[in-house]
Amino acid sequence: MTEQSRATIALRPSAGFVATQATQDLTERAVIYLQAGFPIHFRGPAGTGKTTLALHVAAQIGRPVMLIVGDEEFSASDLIGGQHGYRYRRVVDRFIHSVVKYEENAVQQWVDNRLTTACREGYTLIYDEFTRSRPEANNVLLTVLEERMLVLPTASRDESYIRVHPEFRAIFTSNPQEYAGVHETQDALNDRLITIDLDFYDLETEAMIVATASGIDLEDSLRVVSLIHAYRATGAFTQMPTMRAGMMIARVMALQNMRPTVLDPRFVAVCLDILESKRTFASRDQDLRMQHRRLLMELITTHCA
């Protein structure tokens, strides 16, 4: 088994995936686009389930998955492959008993990286947070997605290009609201993708997801998610409170056998620990800090009475 074959993920449809009308509609549309041969792009803020949805959609395709996570340091070789190490060959000739002849040579060894393997074998490629990679690194994708051809460096094996396998599919994700470490996507690549914009799910869908992920009752999950939604609506934060905050609270509740009530000081402390961190203050802003805490206490009292 090669290193790249070990890097594949064999996905099956997960029984733990929450299939509401909203998630089912997204899944069905994405699968249709992929079956038609188009790459898809899930774009949305943090905490909207882009990666989870990408993995779920890939599982519906039924092919092995190659997962790549965008990185500022990526170059084209990190996607395609490169020369890694040498292959040594030594021949000892003893045909004439009194003469020993040695012949040695060393050849650089080409190793495929994940994009090349996915194109060659017909895997599903998930390129998570692809805008974290520089545009020049992603340029290699242009011919892959349009001409179904991967152009290889001259140093690669004996091939100058490979034809992309007919079963190859590509799913991209990105966060348009982040600025640090994110690059603008080139128009040529955007033009090749079908982009599906994701936003935060409705209250009922988020509550079902949080309940499934944590194991708490749906009624308790509704209270927690209502608290998160209400806090999100105030705008009194530096970092957007997402569904992940609700999952954190719910998992601690399940572990400690808590109920979502303001009468339980443990529950209140967990909510404050997780939600207060969503807003940053200067060391001298004690009055603003206390005002923010009072706001959170009012929300907890209202939604978790």
From TrEMBL:
InterPro entries: AAA+_ATPase (IPR003593), ATPase_dyneun-rel_AAA (IPR011704), CbbQ/NirQ/NorQ/GpvN (IPR050764), Gas-vesicle_GvpN (IPR013462), P-loop_NTPase (IPR027417). One of its GO terms (biological process) is gas vesicle organization. It catalyses: ATP + H2O = ADP + phosphate + H(+). This is Gas vesicle protein N. The keyword Nucleotide-binding applies. Keywords: ATP-binding, Cytoplasm, Gas vesicle, Hydrolase, Nucleotide-binding. One of its GO terms (cellular component) is cytoplasm. PANTHER family: MAGNESIUM-CHELATASE SUBUNIT CHLD (PTHR42759:SF1), MOXR FAMILY PROTEIN (PTHR42759). Belongs to the CbbQ/NirQ/NorQ/GpvN family. The lineage of its organism: Bacteria, Bacillati, Chloroflexota, Chloroflexia, Chloroflexales. Residues 36-204 form the AAA+ ATPase domain. The keyword ATP-binding applies. Its main location: cytoplasm. One of its GO terms (molecular function) is ATP binding. Pfam families: AAA_5. It is found in: Cytoplasm; Gas vesicle. It comes from Oscillochloris trichoides DG-6.
